[in-house]
Amino acid sequence: MTNSHTRRHLATELASAAAAYQVAQVIPHCPDCARPCCRLDALVLDLEWKQIKVFWKIEESRKTFDRRLSTGDGPVEIREAEGRYYVHSKPCPAYDLTAKSCQVYGQDIKPVGCSDFPVYEDSGDVIADLRCEAVDLDAVVDWIGRAIGPEWRVVQKADEDFPFLVTLSVRRGRTSPPSVRGRTGK
Asked: Which of 45, 69, 83, 145 has its CA 20 to 30 A from that of 138?
C-alpha cells in the first residue's frame, strides 16, 4: 500500500470513528445539554445563502438581502464575508427551543459544521472541541485507538490560541501497555 493510499485510508477510518463516536456518545446527550450548541452562545455557524434563505424564511433576492445586511438593517446575528454568512449570539432558527432538537437534522440543508461538531476528521487528524460537554477526550482517544488498531498511537495537542480545540493525530508505533508505562527497569 502506498503512503498516500495509507493516509487516505486512515483519514477515512478516522472520519468513520469520529462520526460513530458522535452517534453513540454526543447526540444522545444533546436533549439534556445545559449549553446547546444550536443556541450559538459560544459558537459561530458558517452558512451558505441557501441555508440563510431557508432558515430565516427570506423572500428577497440575495443582492437585496446583502445590501440590507451591510446597512445594518438585516438580522443582527448574521454577518456576511466573502460570500459566506456567519451567525452568532441567537439560536439557530432550525433549533426548536421547546423540543430541544434540530428541525433539519438528517437533511441536506443541515450545515456541515453542525454535522461535524464537536468531533470530526480534518486533513488526516481528528479534532475534538471540548466546548461540548458531551465530549470525553479520553473516551475519544480510546474510540479512535480501537478503530485504527494497535499498530497506531494517538497523539494529543491542544491549540495554543484555542485550548478547547484538541487535535488528535495518529502515528505509527504502538503505545506501551499500561502495565509497562512508568516502569523504571528495576
From this structure: 45
Q: How far is residue 158's CA from residue 165's CA, in Å, rounded to a whole number? A: 6
**DSSP codes joined into one string, 162-180:** -TTEEEEEEEESPPPPTTT
CA distances from 167 to 33, 38, 86, 124 (A): 23, 23, 24, 10
Look at residues 173, 169, 147, 171 and name the one whose alpha carbon lies nearest to residue 159: 169
For 145, the 3-state DSSP assignment is helix
Distance separating alpha carbons of residues 94 and 109, to the nearest angstrom: 10
Q: Are 165 and 129 in contact (CB under 8 A)?
A: yes
pLDDT digits (tens, 9 = 90+) for 150-178: 989 999 999 999 999 999 999 988 654 44
Question: Residue for cell digits 477526550?
Answer: 137
Residue 178 DSSP one-character state: T
Residue 87, phi then psi, degrees to nearest 5: -120, 135
Phi, psi of 119 (to 5 degrees): -130, 120
Residue among 74, 76, 73 nearest 88 (CA) = 76
Report H helices in the chain: 3-21, 49-55, 62-70, 112-116, 137-148
Read off the amino acid at residue 33.
C
Helices and strands per DSSP (H, E), number in the chain? 5, 9
